[in-house]
Each structure stands twice: as structure tokens, then as C-alpha cells.
């Protein structure tokens, strides 16, 4: 095990997995806010390229993706390829959906897919009750407005399906790999960049002459694909897949709290009820024993 692997593995085991998920939840909503602001200047595909490219470059020095790929067996290489393809298409479809639909609808469709993952593993009545409370809280929090844009709904549906794939493949990478799966994540991100290179690079070129746009693009990658995905891997390495899927109910609650603290947007009574239900659901849940 390399020194970087040892440090990441130590971090994964010494910090509670719920803390790692909490960090991921905070950054999960900072990234899209940067991205949407960049759409007019860089283009949707250009922003997707910046997200993957900057993340791949940031990961490379401490995950050594080429070495990880070369030393992997055939089964692991297929896992890395699948995760890389999933990250490339998922992130692109997410931004294409955001360009056409309200974020609340995209988030609701994304969360709906994770309910199935949680249901598959939450086999006790206590945990099913926890899931029901969390789901009810999420849909109280999310002001879903339906849309009639078929293309936008297609991209949102594709993103939701691939988000489930990310949970399954990411959890597999985390449970089988060293360093909480982060080295495998770095390799998958490099593969995602290769896949996305011919698609978004032309639009991304528009930003290269403006340093502030380049820095903003790097910020999107850091906030959307580096910090949250690393924290996801460190949490996944300690949590059952179904428990991780249930924790995703914290994302809308976190967004509401961040808006209250950072933007001084007072949560309504309905919002507070939704947050309370999510928190109760998380507190009631008990991870399945090994």
C-alpha cells in the first residue's frame, strides 16, 4: 500500500462515515450553483468537460490512475471502465437536464431512483419506517414543478438511472479497493475524461482565453467531483449500500440549511417539517450488521 493509500485508508476508518457524507452533502450543492452560472459563457457540454477534466487532473498526482489501471485484474478494469463511463454520461446528462428543467424536478427524479436501492437492502420494519419518513421529508422539502420538455425529461431520467449506477459501482469500488476506493475513483475519473474529451472540449475552449472562467470551471470540478466523490467513497467503504442510499435524503435538507445560513433565506414551516422528518428517519435507521 502506498503512503497516499495508507493516509486515505486511515482517514476512512478514523472518521465516522456519516461525517464524510455530511461534507459531501454540503459540496453537492455548491458545485451545481457554479455550473449553472457558467452555462451562458462556456456552454453546458463545456462545463461538463471542465468538471471531469479538472477532477481528473486534481486526482492524478495522489491516485496514480495509470498504475491503478495497469495493475488491476480484468474484473477490476471492467469495474473502472463502467464507473468511468457512468461518471462521464451522468455528469453530462445532469447538466443538460438542469439547462432545461427546474433543479427541484431533476433532484426529485434523481432521489426517486435511490429509493429502490435503499428498499433493496432495508429489510427490517424499523429501517423501512426510516426510509418512509426520509422520503416524505424530501418531498415536503422539494417544491417539484412538473415540466413538459421531453428532451429535458429524457436527460433527467438518464441522470437518475446513472446515479443509481454510480451508487452501485462506487460502492463496489469502495468495498474492494484500498484507500477507501479513492485510487479507483481517480482511475475512473481519468477514463471519464478520455470518454468526454471529444464531446465537450470544443465548447470548453471558449473559456481558455478568460482566466476567471477557467478558475470557475476548476471550482466546479473541485466542488462537484473531487470533494464530494472522495467523501462518498470514504463513506461507502464503511456503510452498506442501502444505508448510503438512505443518507441521500440529507441532500435536500442540507440545501435548505445552507440557503438559510449563507443566503439568509428563511425556511418555511413546511421546510422545517421536511427537515425534521428526514432527520428522524436517519436517526431511526440502523445499518445492517455485517
TrEMBL record:
SUPFAM superfamilies: Multidrug resistance efflux transporter EmrE. The chain crosses the membrane at residues 20-42, 48-66, 78-97, 103-121, 128-146, 152-169, 181-201, 213-231, 243-263, 269-288. Residues 151-284 form the EamA domain. Keywords: Membrane, Transmembrane, Transmembrane helix. InterPro entries: EamA_dom, EmrE-like. This is DMT family transporter. It comes from Pseudohalocynthiibacter aestuariivivens.
Amino acid at each position: 500500500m502506498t503512503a497516499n493509500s495508507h493516509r486515505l485508508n486511515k482517514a476512512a476508518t478514523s472518521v465516522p462515515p456519516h461525517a464524510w457524507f455530511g461534507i459531501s452533502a454540503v459540496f453537492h450543492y455548491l458545485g451545481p450553483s457554479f455550473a449553472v452560472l457558467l452555462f451562458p459563457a462556456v456552454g453546458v457540454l463545456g462545463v461538463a468537460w471542465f468538471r471531469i477534466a479538472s477532477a481528473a487532473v486534481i486526482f492524478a498526482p495522489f491516485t496514480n490512475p495509470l498504475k491503478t489501471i495497469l495493475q488491476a485484474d480484468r474484473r477490476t478494469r471492467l469495474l473502472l471502465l463502467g464507473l468511468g463511463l457512468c461518471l462521464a454520461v451522468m455528469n453530462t446528462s445532469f447538466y443538460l437536464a438542469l439547462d432545461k428543467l427546474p433543479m427541484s424536478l431533476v433532484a426529485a427524479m434523481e432521489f426517486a431512483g435511490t429509493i429502490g436501492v435503499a428498499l433493496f437492502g432495508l429489510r427490517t420494519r424499523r429501517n423501512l419506517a426510516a426510509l418512509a419518513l426520509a422520503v416524505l421529508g424530501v418531498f415536503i422539502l422539494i417544491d417539484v414543478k412538473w415540466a413538459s420538455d421531453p428532451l429535458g425529461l429524457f436527460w433527467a431520467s438518464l441522470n437518475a438511472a446513472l446515479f443509481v449506477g454510480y451508487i452501485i459501482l462506487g460502492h463496489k469500488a469502495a468495498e474492494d479497493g484500498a484507500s477507501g476506493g479513492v485510487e479507483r475513483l481517480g482511475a475512473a475519473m481519468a477514463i471519464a475524461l478520455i470518454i468526454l474529451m471529444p464531446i465537450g472540449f470544443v465548447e470548453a475552449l471558449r473559456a481558455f482565453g478568460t482566466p476567471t472562467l477557467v478558475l470557475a470551471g476548476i471550482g466546479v470540478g473541485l466542488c462537484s467531483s473531487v470533494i464530494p466523490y472522495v467523501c462518498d467513497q470514504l463513506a461507502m467503504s464503511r456503510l452498506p449500500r442501502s444505508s448510503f442510499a438512505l443518507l441521500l435524503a440529507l441532500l435536500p435538507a442540507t440545501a435548505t440549511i445552507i440557503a438559510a445560513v449563507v443566503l439568509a433565506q428563511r425556511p418555511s414551516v413546511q421546510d422545517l417539517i421536511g427537515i425534521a422528518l428526514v432527520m428522524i428517519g436517519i436517526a431511526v435507521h440502523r445499518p445492517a450488521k455485517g
